[in-house]
Amino acid sequence: MTTATPANPNFLNVFKIISSAKKGFLRKKVNRARRENVARGMAGQLDLSMDSMEETRFKKRNQYLIQRLEKRLHFTYAEIECLLLIYYKLWKEGLVNNPSQEGVTKVQFRDVLHCALDMTDDSLMDRVFLALDKGPSSCISMETWATAFSLFLRGTIEEKIQFCFSVYDIMGDGILARDSIFQLLRTSLVSQSGEEDAEESARDMIEVITKKMDIDRDGKISYADYKQSVLKNPMLLEAFGQCLPSRQATFSYLTTFTSTGSTM
């Protein structure tokens, strides 16, 4: 009678480790898929004014873009779906007058920012667009659209500091010199209260703001100066003109496509 050779203990240990790791990987994969399916199921049809089949095709066509955006934006998968559906409907409206339109135009986007987000400083709007999308196209992509709303509605203070400075950095050299600051303040004051006394008021404001924000006293405001000043006093974030939505507009717009209007 032959006796069975006992299994190598080392082999058994390795086998158990591999089996355990494989089970853990499969469990995480299943749980992730379950969470995504639950989110999609809870969302149901997002827009009752759109044909359900058309909405389903849109979701399926853009699912990989949405997954990619979900990893880096401050929105859930379902919220990004809603944002992109808004984009899609605006695009369809534009196609009525221009069948060759390739997306939401910057004019349409400007109207959304003006009417929905209370961004009414037209003097800075071109700079806002340039900071968001430096491309030459008259249209913005779905990715730029979603990224912009992530910044405007739930952006961190660091993201907003970087964005606002890029809007104000007219020369693109990372420095806000006195001439640039004067131009920004004067234009902003003219748009708010008219031409009269705007120049004199701008010069007075330069002295006050520069004294507060020029940390190293070199006569100009660097990005480091600006960031340090804003982190110390957030009220200085839009010192040179409005380039972000108001808090009330932010909350109101969030409630149109999220379960809560909470911001980060």
TrEMBL record:
Keywords, sorted A to Z: Calcium, Metal-binding, Repeat
PROSITE patterns to which the protein is assigned, alphabetical: EF_HAND_1 (PS00018), EF_HAND_2 (PS50222)
Gene3D superfamilies attached to this UniProt entry: EF-hand
Coiled coil: none
Entry annotated with the keyword Calcium: yes
Gene Ontology MF terms: calcium ion binding
InterPro entries referenced in this protein's UniProt entry, alphabetically: EF-hand-dom_pair (IPR011992), EF_Hand_1_Ca_BS (IPR018247), EF_hand_dom (IPR002048), Recoverin (IPR028846)
Domain (EF-hand): residue spans on this chain: 201-236
PANTHER family in the cross-refs: AT17667P-RELATED, CALCIUM BINDING PROTEINS
Protein's recorded name: EF-hand domain-containing protein
